[in-house]
Amino acid sequence: MAFLDPDTPIATCSATDCSGCPVPAVIRCHFRPKDLIHFLLISLPAFLIGGSGVLELGVWPLVVWIAMVVGFFGFLEIRVMCSHCPHYAEAGGTLSCWANHGSPKPWKYRPGPMSPPENAVFFVGLGAVFVYPLVFLAIGHSWFLLTLYVLTSSTFFVTLRMFLCSRCMNFACPLNGVGEAARELFFERNPSVAVAWQRPGVRDI
To answer: Are 134 and 146 contacting, i.e. CB atoms less than 8 angstroms apart?
Structure first.
């Protein structure tokens, strides 16, 4: 579960060292504890508020939601989305990235874009996780918590897209916001990933 050595190229990279590499300026090839902390700080408020609202209607609804969250983010999302990420190619049985740190890697690495069914599963699962508390907050007439939940959830996704997804190397993720020029820079140094994305003309560094 340790983070990768920032001075050692990732598994898919063709470079022998990271010195002078321009990629880290636009894409995070190596994740650090501060990236994980940043992610937790923007994501936990929505889950804590949503969970407290669900709990007001009983323990079992909360247990069901927790099972949904763990099942989606800890297993299903890993299969349909994370297994496409170059970081998934690293050695070890668990992920050490900023969003799914410690999650198991039971499936093989599958570089390249997500399939339409995978995209559908991703959005349906993500929607179910975040809509579930809305239903219970509305049923319980917890309008204050409902407002806070909508605000914190919205803030989470906006911040995620602006500061994390905009530099993430998992181009397969539907939320990825890395520009085309930055992607090409990454492809040049990760030819196996470029091939999986059917990008011609890559060269080894």
So the answer is: yes
Residue 102, judged by CB atoms within 10 A of its CB (0-12, 13-18, 19+), counts as: exposed
The C-alpha atoms of residue 154 and residue 43 are separated, in whole angstroms, by: 10
Quote the CA–CA distance of 196 and 112 in Å, as a whole number: 5
CA distance 134 to 154: 13
Predicted pLDDT at 186 = 96
Q: What is the dihedral of CA 79, 83, 85, 90, to 10 degrees?
A: 140
Q: Is the pLDDT of residue 204 over 50?
A: no
**Residue 94 and residue 3: Cα distance in Å, rounded?**
11
Task: Give the number of other Cβ atoms within 10 Å of residue 195's Cβ.
Answer: 14
20, 161 in Cβ contact below 8 A?
no
pLDDT tens for residues 12-39?
A: 999 999 999 999 999 999 988 888 899 9
